[in-house]
Amino acid sequence: MSTILSDNPVSGGIAGSRNGGLLPPLRSRSLLGRLAERFIESGLLLAAAFSVLITGGIVFVLVSESLPFFRHVSAREFLTDRLWTPMFADPHHGIMPLVAGTLTTTAVALLVAMPVGTLIAVWLSEFAPSRLREVLKPALELLAAVPTVVYGYFAVDFVTPALQAFIPDLPTFNMLGPGIVMGVMIIPYVSSLSEDAIRAVPMLLREGSYALGAGKFTTAMRVVYPAAFSGIASAYVLAISRAVGETMIVAIAAGQQPNLSFNPLDPAATITAFIVQVSLGDLPHGSIGYQSIFAAGVTLFVMTLGFNIIGAVMRRRYRQAY
Q1: Do both 147 and 214 map to the same domain?
Q2: Which end of the chain is more exposed for a tag (fewer CB within 10 A), N or C?
Q3: Exposed, middle or buried: residue 188 (CB in 10 Å: 0-12, 13-18, 19+)?
Q4: At 322, is the pLDDT very low, low, confident or very high (cuts 50, 70, 90)?
Q5: What is the predicted pLDDT for the residue at 36?
Q6: 3-class DSSP state for residue 218?
Q7: How high is the pLDDT of residue 138?
Q8: How many domains does the chain divide into?
Q9: Which regions of the chain does DSSP assign to beta strands (E)?
């Protein structure tokens, strides 16, 4: 029996490969596999820890640099004063004019991006032919690759003059024009992520809706959209965070004058525009005007964190598992 096995080319080849050293022994192979798995797990853990450390470092810098500012300016003045003139001879340190400008431009952008991006996502997922979708989706995502400086001058040189044809009293610097351009810029964030969430909905839900007599549009809006709302809400939160943190479009097209107004036809300054304006100046390090940059940064960080917390709550509330 042993002679037959030794003459079998298959078993002989396997045995020869094991004994001849062509393949490592099973014990050493399992040891190498465990080492490789531990190495990969350690790399993933380090990547996650690195991102947490970076976030912690950002928070530490913002808080430590803004503390000297709040030693001279009370929280009440910071939150209730209606003027923001930290570099004037008679300084005022009310953050609300910058918050108003940031929220107004963000609201205008979302009024453009959220409905347009959602409709594009529904159409691409439910109605567009597959070949057309493969072409249009990457082309649409190219909007996110355009430099924001280009968008800023596009808002000043094209969008605002076009709006002035319908609103003659619209000033050159306003919040409406850059808000619209910001909305166009963040459409890919909404449409791409929303389309991925919609396509992840199981086909069984669509087929069940069709079996009950619903049409394609009714199925898309009353069955598929609610089922994918958790992922769509994530797209909305990402778009909000992107709009709140936008700098160059509002710095170029919205103006540099802090103005406590929620009217999109007025000029205003946003938090990011003020940070850019002061960062390019010659303020001495450690002065109140310089420290105001970090106070504004803390405000922007808190706003973005609040939007992300709201998004996380919405995702948990409307999350559906299949």
Answers
A1: yes
A2: N
A3: buried
A4: low
A5: 84
A6: helix
A7: 87
A8: 2
A9: 84-85, 92-93
